[in-house]
Design a protein that fits this description.
The complex is a heterodimer of chains A (89) and B (161).
Chain A (H helix, E strand, L loop, with lengths): L1 H19 L11 H18 L4 H9 L1 H22 L4
Chain B lengths: L1 H38 L8 H18 L2 H7 L2 H24 L18 H32 L11
Helix pairs in contact in B: 1-2, 2-3, 2-5, 4-5
The chains are: A mainly alpha (89), B mainly alpha (161).
Chain lengths: 89, 161
């Protein structure tokens, strides 16, 4: 069984390693992310949100679903910690 | 032997006085800085997560310098638990308000109907609103987790050290 698991892990590693060969180079200016998404954020963020800090505009406006998820994760961690540890007399 | 014990107690008391006085002096400034980081997220690095952590750090410093009882006089467990969920409710409430006004979830531009601002500044204010919500939740959860882990769920102080 352990041998099977090892083979599965090695196979997945090889597949993932092979898949990275198709990725654009790090910081490549002609990659899709740099030609479609980033320029729009940089050019439009201030005009559309009146927020000089692009990071805040992307975090809380363009990707606010993501931030909502992060907040709920923190909330869930707090509630679970309370449920597991808190002793009520 | 008796003198030595008395002397060491004296030293401990003096250390306590220094720590407590310094903490009493700097805790308001830490909290003010936390509020600044939340409110200034539009112009500088910062926002709800960082500001909430700084606010929580001020309460944790209060627990370290004084004790849990003293901190709970300022913020009781009930208020802390309410603040935990208030932040998420503020966030989703702003999102639902956008839906009610006829836009997509969390599309703050539509808030110009009820805010005295144009669409761009409504977005800016919407961002500020959700950052405040995030700040509430992060602060309350950090304090709650710290208290639960530090006192093993008792919320009481151990031996005075």
């Amino acid at each position: 069984m352990k041998v099977l698991a090892l083979i599965a892990v090695l196979l997945t590693t090889a597949m993932l390693g092979y898949a990275t060969l198709d990725m654009p180079g790090w910081g490549d200016p002609s990659s899709p992310a740099s030609t479609h998404v980033s320029p729009v954020y940089i050019q439009e963020a201030y005009k559309k949100t009146a927020t000089p800090n692009i990071v805040t505009a992307v975090l809380a406006d363009y990707r606010s679903y993501d931030t909502l998820g992060e907040t709920v994760v923190i909330f869930t961690a707090g509630v679970v910690c309370m449920m597991l540890l808190r002793k009520v007399k | 032997m008796h003198d030595a014990a008395k002397e060491s107690k004296m030293i401990r008391d003096f250390e306590n006085i220094i720590i407590k006085t310094v903490c009493r002096a700097i805790i308001p400034f830490i909290q003010l800085y936390g509020l600044y980081v939340i409110a200034h997220g539009h112009y500088s690095p910062g926002g709800g997560f960082q500001g909430g952590c700084i606010l929580a750090a001020s309460f944790i410093l209060m627990v370290l310098a004084y004790d849990i009882k003293e901190m709970k006089k300022r913020m009781s467990e009930k208020i802390n638990t309410i603040l935990c969920s208030t932040g998420v409710i503020i966030y989703t409430g702003i999102g639902l308000l956008c839906v009610i006004l006829g836009a997509n979830f969390l599309d703050y531009g539509i808030l110009e109907i009820i805010l005295p601002a144009d669409a761009e500044h409504s977005r800016s204010l919407g961002i500020l609103g959700v950052e405040i919500g995030v700040g509430f939740t992060v602060m309350a959860v950090m304090v709650s987790i710290f208290l639960n882990i530090a006192s093993a769920g008792e919320h009481e102080d151990g031996e005075q050290g």
